[in-house]
Amino acid sequence: MSSLEAIETRAAGVPQSLILCAHTHTARAVRLRDGRLIVNPGSVGSPGYRAGKPHPHVVEAGSPDARYAILEQVDGGWDVTFRHIPYDHAAMAALARQHGQAELASALATGWIR
User: Which InterPro entries has this protein been placed in (predicted)?
Assistant: First the structure.
C-alpha cells in the first residue's frame, strides 16, 4: 500500500475535498494532512489479482465478499462506511475454473490468489 506521502504527491493539484478512486480493489480511506479525504470502495467481484504493470504486484482482499462503500455528508465532512456482502462466490469460482482461470478461481473462492 502506498504511504501517506506518496498519496499526497499523487493527489497534488486535485482541489476537491472528497476524492474517489478505484482499481486497486483494496477498501481504504485516507485522510490527507490538508483535510481532503480519499476513498477506495474495494471490489465487487474481483477480490484478488496479479498484475505486471506499472510494476509486478499482487492484490488480495483476504475475503471473497463483494465490497463497496457508502459516503454520507455529516456536519460539513464525510462519513465512510465500508460494506462486505457475501454472494455466491463458489459459483463464480467454478465458472472461472471452467474457463481455465485457476488463479482467478482461487481469488473468487477465498480472496487469495495462492
Answer: Metallo-depent_PP-like
| pLDDT greater than 80 at residue 23 | no
pLDDT tens digit sequence for 41-99: 988 878 888 888 888 888 788 888 999 999 999 998 999 999 999 999 999 999 999 99
Average pLDDT of the residues in 28-43: 94
- In angstroms, the CA 97 to CA 101 distance is 5
β-strand partners of 83? 68
Distance of alpha carbon 16 from alpha carbon 35, whole angstroms: 10
State phi, psi for 72 to the nearest 5 degrees: -130, 135
Tell whether the torsion through CA atoms of 55, 22, 26 and 61 is positive or negative: negative
Amino acid present at 39: V
Closest CA to 61 of 89, 95, 27, 29: 27
> Hunting for cell 496479479 — which residue is that?
50
Which amino acid belongs to residue 56?
P
**Sign of the C-alpha dihedral computed for residues 81, 45, 88 and 105 taken in this order:** negative
